[in-house]
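Per reviewer request, we include the raw input and output of the structure prediction for the construct analysed in the revised manuscript.
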Amino acid sequence: MNVFLGLIVILLSIWKGDWRNWEKYYPSMLYMALATFIYEFISHEQYQLWDLHRDAFLSDMNTHFVHNLVINPLAIFVYLSNYPTNGLSKIIAYNAKWIIIFWLVECVAAWMNIITYHNGWNLVWSLAFLSIMFPMVRLHYTNVRLALPLSVFFTVLLLFLFDYV
């Protein structure tokens, strides 16, 4: 499923991504990749909240690389490329659509044991996380100086909530 999901996101980015202006979105794509790698660094083999599992085509490390370097950044590229520019109701609906899509994909992955949860994390926490993640990515795109300290705040909050600290 990881390879399949990667191919879907690549095709979606070709179809819906704003490739003429990809440089505008690149810092936020890196923000997403870096945040994921920081999670991997903090939790590696010691205190994971969730863990992606290999499939028939990828090793454990390559599974994480596909998600961190292909799926997540390209999904953010498509998300930002098509973000509505006006109308609060459109913005709320757009964010809700992305949150629900990501969450439903995660539900299927959990059902297929492609992702497992540990140390109190579950699908409800994932939904809450996604509800913060997408607006934070947009905030990073529009206001890095505000997004970075808020990211640190949410990271520290999660570290305390899940007994890392």
